[in-house]
Amino acid sequence: MTKPSSPSELHFRTCNLCEAMCGLRIETSGGRVTSIRGDEEDPFSKGHICPKAVALQDLHEDPDRLRQPVRRTANGWQPISWEEALDETARRLHAIQKEHGKESVGAYVGNPTVHDHGALIFLPMLLRALRTKNKFSASSVDQLPHQLVAYLMFGHQFLIPIPDIDHTRYMLILGANPLASNGSLMSAPGVRGRLKAIQQRGGRVVVVDPRKTETARAADEHVFIRPGTDALWLFSLLHVLLEETGPKLGRLAEFSDGLATVREVARDFTPERAALHTGVPADTTRRIARELSASESAVCYGRLGVSTQAFGAMCQWLINLINLVTGNFDREGGALFTKPAFDVVQGPRALAMGRGSFGRWRSRVRGLPEFSGDLPVAALGEEILTEGPGRIRAMLTSAGNPVVSTPNGRQLDKALESLDFMVSIDPYINETTRHAHIILPPSTHLERSHYDLAFHVLAVRNTAKYSPPLFPKRPDSKHDWEIFLELKHRLEKLRGAPRVQGELEYRTLKALGPDRLLDVALRAGPYGLKLRPFRKGLSLASLEAQPHGVDLGPLQPSLPGRLATRDRRIQLAPELLVADVQRLRQTYPADAPAPEEGTLLLIGRRHLRDNNSWLHNVPRLVSGKPRCTLMVHPDDARRLGLREGGEAFITSRVGEVKAPVTVTDEVMQGVVSLPHGYGHGREGVRLRVAGEHAGVSINDLTDDRSLDAISGNAAFSGVQVRIKPVESIRTEEQLEQSATG
């Protein structure tokens, strides 16, 4: 007699693998996922999904994923109990700090953390319990310039202006490829359709980028620009807007300071001067400036490519200024602030994220400034390797793989190997966690509830959505927030914290969990009950009753009320940024220097099916033609003797890699491109699928000394490299052997 099949169950959920927040319709049967499709009833994504959505099932079922804690031994990885793992981790961290001081322990947090509200709420508690100033995160290889500029201009690091893509008639995009990223610091599912809608309503989309990206191919116009020169070009755009078309601050002038200073610093940055370095013709710059100024509505948007360069903070400052002086700030079709249901800016103090800070302390070796409690991760390797008081001797990493995602990865690889102790909160043994002494694997995406605490703050429309767990977590597993809480509690007990108070706090937080704290924030938020129990409003229960999510309306003007500066005024000319203009002038003098012969500029790239490094173990996402290739312009290929399908040695100050060549006019002459997130061929990595598509790490070439001098953000874009065909290297070696033989 055959056993009846399990009935199918239907679930609605948000995909939490990238920033787009696409709604999913997931069918399960017998405890397994049988189907993942877009949720057409989701008011934000309206059925759109990208190929990454299927990875939720693959990650949940991945045989390489750790199911219990492991300890590294001389004979390999040994499974251990949670109690043993947590006790040993806390004991060893405490012992190292007791012997060598608080700063002898460092912490690194990766970007998957922002896709998990439990982690976002509970991880800061653990970091405070560590009491170290040596904290690092993926922010300083990503969006740190956005946060610093928001802090300086608007008073809070998360007051990041969002492009009103759904209503604008002119969108200028720099260093961003939203058709691959699904929108970044601009959560926007279905970006292709949103860009097409701009064109259908008579508008224009213009992309300025060293590569003709997927987004550039869909735009009305693409303009090549030399990597790293975006600040110079943005200044020339601002020059035209101030000197020719005139500023249009409108009502914002009543609460804005510093316009005269901005005029003064922009005066000598003419389009003609910029053209010498950027490669953008002066008449093109003037035309784009006039189009921006004349458009009924317009918005300038710049993302990773303009943040990860030597003038990243300046680029984000200038983008805000361009939106302000064209009259497109805090207005429909321009750049606006969101009004999220969980308000991290103006919500309950205990749950709101800090407004930010800058330079309260500096790194030991190079003196790099902290921002909001984090030091630039480009300093991490040297802080471990450089002897002396305060040297990092132990590390805690969570949801991160800095060996392949931060600059000079080989140096960090060597540094992590030298640690006295390392613990990683991660489901995989990857390029970074292979150095850990203990790995604590959290539950999977489908075993925990989900609310996009961070990305509702960065979305192109105000929405809210809660997803309960799809599957119950195994009895012998823990959520990441539980791991953080358990480690916090143990560290405080070892340190001799008040026993009764500590036990009460621990039991209270454990009972509440992230969902009840989420409920408090929703009720206290702008759409919540606000202590009026008879008025309907958002709560966790009301969101659970609406599984497709809630549409809270388009972005709306919110100034000056939304400002968090102490005087509620916009600071157009922060002293820190104005002072940095001299560095820009010195770097790009009026008379352009001759480029170094034979030097090429390296940039990264991203594919729709990639999400940093950790999705490369999903077979469906790495299938097809190899993506880890070096893109080279045809003229450069001919000059260097490179051919399609051949191999090239790429060398920088910090290292060299070998990669197959793709010859294409998609990159401008003098520029080459490698994708981000590869390099899985290191010994000890237990990612079978990723190992079969190992590729090379661009961060074995990027330079830990190359930073934005203001923010400390890594300057990945425009790394100087030299390239030779592998065949020529072999010939040189053969000739050398023949001569010595």
Tell me what you see in this structure.
The protein folds into 4 domains: 9-61, ADC-like domains (N-terminal domain of TfIIb); 70-142 and 345-514, Rossmann fold; 161-336 and 563-582, Dimethylsulfoxide Reductase, domain 2, CATH 3.40.228.10; 594-740, Barwin-like endoglucanases, CATH 2.40.40.20. It has 24 helices and 30 strands. Strands 5-4-19-18-17-6-7 form a 7-stranded mixed beta sheet, with helices on one face. A 6-stranded mixed beta barrel has the order 25-29-26-28-27-30. It has a 4-stranded parallel beta sheet with strand order 11-10-9-13. A hairpin with a 2-residue loop joins strand 2 and strand 3. The chain is globular and about 65 Å long. Residues 1-5 have low confidence and may be disordered.
Concise synopsis of the structure shown:
The chain has 24 helices and 30 strands.
Mean pLDDT: 94
Distance between the termini: 78 Å
Reading off the top of the CATH hierarchy, the class of the largest domain is best stated as Alpha Beta
Structural class per helix/strand content? alpha/beta
Residue stretches low in confidence (pLDDT < 50, at least 5 long) are 1-5
CATH architectural arrangement of the largest domain: 3-Layer(aba) Sandwich
Summarize the main sheet. Answer: 7 strands, mixed
CATH fold-level topology of the largest domain: Rossmann fold
Relative strand content? 15-25%
